[in-house]
Design brief:
Layout lengths: L1 H6 L3 H18 L5 H7 L4 E9 L4 E10 L9 H11 L2 H19 L4 E7 H22 L7 E6 L7 H13 L3 E7 L6 H7 L3 E4 L1 H4 L6 H17 L2 E4 L5 H10 L3 E2 L17 H7 L36 H10 L5 E6 L2 E7 H8 L4 H5 L14 E3 L4 H8 L6 H4 L1 E5 L2 E6 L1 H16 L11 H14 L3 E9 L1 H8 L1 H17 L7 E6 L2 E6 L4 H15 L6 H6 L1 E5 L5 E5 L2 E9 L7 H18 L3 E3 L9
Parallel strand pairs: 2-3, 3-4, 4-5, 5-6, 6-7, 7-8, 11-12, 19-20
Antiparallel strand pairs: 1-2, 1-8, 9-10, 12-13, 14-16, 14-19, 15-16, 17-18
């Protein structure tokens, strides 16, 4: 059938198509495998899956995907590739797929670009046999403009001749063809390949797109790839988008193009429009709620903390040598004993000088080994230790670090000393810094993520509501029942705030203590707030003793030390509606929400909505 099809072409055009296809035609001659028979009968066809411009919500291109006869064992692309491997026809199958795709695309006369899959090896062989001009002319014969074709390089094996592939890429660009890297990040793609062939487009493997709405590590990876793409001037396509939540995140990241079943499914007829559900998401002004990464305190590494660069002594040093160092360095709390840069012991100043000052100590022990009064099991801290390891030191049974301090090492070598006071202060500061990113009690995002999300909402110029939540009469409750039950009440409020928020639209943050912030994009935000108020009022009563529940509160001292009655703890919510350019920055929104919360507490009505502010004049 293929020979008949070629013979039907007009004489001036047939040579270019024959030259393009002659290798796979000659290889199929005499073959009798299932795949060879299908190819000789021209029984394979192409389906086209849309690649969508995520900014304009329009179909930018289509990727050609090969299929076998419907209902047959060789219907799927994977089955066809396995058969090609078994029959020794991998290259021939690739050429046949390109031919079939070009032919079908030319017959449809569709606008937009066409993505064609080809391995690096097959691409080099194709160009070597017929040259780029022959390939371009064959495309024109089939009524496809080379400038609308993107050759998508699939790496099924390592590229052995990188320089050769670079030359091929240059030649293809010269005749108007574009290049893309497929499945970047699947373990076979190479950053070096991206750097050297400078593809116009890189398609990110679907692993990184799938479930990105709930995976902060994947989010960070895509953010890093966007930075690399900016350096190389490359557009990115996120593959495998299969739901609304993932599409929202990928759209808001600023990735140019997307592909996946949620956007458009493969079909024999190229689809001119994005699927309705995806179209709705792409035109929705509401921003995605980005997954929060567990904040790791990078400053928790001692590399970022100041050290005491104390002089060290060798294991052969005597007590007189140590005394001389202490006398010349009056502020030094300890001296390390080091052997070939490896710490062996630490000598505490106070303990050593107390011994050294005793009668006849210098005469008897002055020339003896300094290890006599040294702590030969010193606390060693590698400079790359993180905050969790530092906390482990503070809670360990061996508390000698409080007086001796500790020895800091860099890759096992002596680097300096630290004091116990310095360690306690550093850990405290680091935990406070960590709490600004994620509250340790509720694990909800802290002040920094809250501010960043408000900033994104303002920049989108859409509509949202900032709700500041606070507890009424919490301090008397906390004083009466203790911090453990107080923490239980805060966690109860956190659970209710999360349960009455849409995780794809609404952002819940923990400002600190009993203060929370919800940034609503849900249209029914007021009803959600009312449910938080009502359910908390019921569930919080269980945290009071029976006597307090019966009389509706407790007797406790107020802030002035006066004993009085406090009703059971309830919730106040202050809401600020934001639209357009009514607010300039996140701080202004947070301040207004705090004022609304204060009004809610004064009114005692649960929810107080601040009058809406008009947009700021340009």
């Amino acid at each position: 059938m293929l020979e008949t099809l070629f013979a039907a072409q007009r004489p001036p055009m047939i040579d270019h198509v024959r030259l393009f296809a002659h290798e796979f035609l000659s290889a199929l001659s005499g073959r009798d495998g299932p795949l060879a028979r299908l190819m000789l009968r021209d029984a394979l066809h192409t389906v086209f899956q849309p690649i969508v411009d995520l900014k304009s919500a329009t179909v930018h291109a289509h990727e050609a995907l090969i299929r076998g006869p419907q209902g047959s064992p060789l219907q799927s692309a994977d089955a066809l590739l396995n058969a090609a491997q078994a029959e020794g026809l991998l290259y021939e199958l690739e050429m046949f797929c390109i031919y079939v795709a070009l032919r079908q695309w030319g017959q449809q006369h569709q606008p937009g670009r066409l993505f064609l899959n080809i391995s690096a090896h097959a691409l080099e062989r194709l160009v070597a046999v017929g040259g780029t001009n022959t390939l371009a002319r064959a495309m024109r014969v089939m009524e496809v403009s080379p400038r609308m074709v993107v050759l998508e390089i699939t790496e099924h094996e390592r590229v052995l001749d990188m320089e050769g592939l670079v030359e091929v890429a240059r030649a293809l660009h010269a005749v108007g063809l574009s290049l893309a890297l497929d499945d970047f990040g699947d373990g076979r793609s190479s950053l070096r390949l991206w750097s050297q062939i400078r593809p116009d487009i890189v398609k990110i493997d679907k692993y990184f797109s799938r479930d990105i709405s709930s995976n902060a590590d994947k989010l960070k990876t895509l953010q890093a790839l966007l930075q690399i793409a900016d350096v190389f001037g490359t557009a990115l396509v996120a593959e495998g988008i299969e739901n609304e939540a993932d599409l929202r995140v990928i759209r808001d990241l600023g990735i140019a193009y997307g592909q996946g079943y949620f956007l458009g499914r493969p079909d024999m007829d190229a689809q001119p429009e994005v699927l309705p559900a995806a179209h709705k998401v792409l035109h929705d002004s509401r921003v995605a709620v980005m997954p929060e990464q567990r904040y790791i305190v990078r400053m928790g590494q001692l590399r970022h903390l100041s050290l005491i660069h104390a002089p060290a002594v060798s294991r052969g040093a005597c007590n007189d040598d140590v005394a001389a160092i202490f006398q010349s360095h009056p502020d030094l709390h300890a001296v390390p004993v080091v052997d070939d840069e490896r710490p062996l012991a630490i000598i505490n100043r106070q303990q050593f000088m107390d011994h050294y000052a005793t009668l006849y100590f210098r005469e008897i022990y002055g020339k003896k080994s300094c290890l006599l009064h040294a702590n030969q099991q010193p606390r060693l801290i590698e400079r790359s230790h993180d905050i969790e390891e530092l906390i482990g030191i503070l809670t360990s049974q061996d508390q000698r670090y409080l007086s001796d301090g500790f020895i800091v090492t860099d890759n096992g070598r002596y680097a300096g000393l630290g004091t116990g006071e310095q360690l306690v202060r550093s850990v405290t500061e680091l935990r406070l810094e960590a709490a600004r990113h994620a509250n340790p009690l509720t694990s909800l995002p802290g002040n920094i993520p809250i501010s960043l999300h408000i900033k994104r909402l303002i920049e989108s110029q859409g509509e949202f509501v900032a709700c500041y939540i606070d507890l009424n009469n919490f301090k008397p409750f906390n004083d009466q029942y203790g911090y453990w039950r107080g923490d239980e009440m805060i966690r109860l409020l956190a659970r209710l705030a999360v349960s009455h928020s849409d995780p794809q639209k609404d952002f819940v943050g923990h400002v600190g203590g009993d203060d929370f912030m919800i940034l609503y994009q849900s249209g029914d935000w007021a009803a959600r707030c009312e449910r938080i108020v009502a359910e908390f009022a019921v569930q919080a009563r269980d945290l009071f003793d029976e006597a307090a529940r019966l009389c509706g509160g407790i007797h406790a001292e107020d802030r002035h030390g006066v004993m009085r009655f406090f009703p059971c703890t309830t919730v106040s919510i202050g809401a600020v509606q934001v639209s357009g350019q009514a607010y300039r920055d996140a701080e202004e929104v947070a301040t207004q929400a705090a004022l609304a919360k204060r009004e809610a507490k004064l009114a005692g009505s649960g929810l107080f909505v601040m009058p809406q502010r008009p947009p700021v004049c340009a």
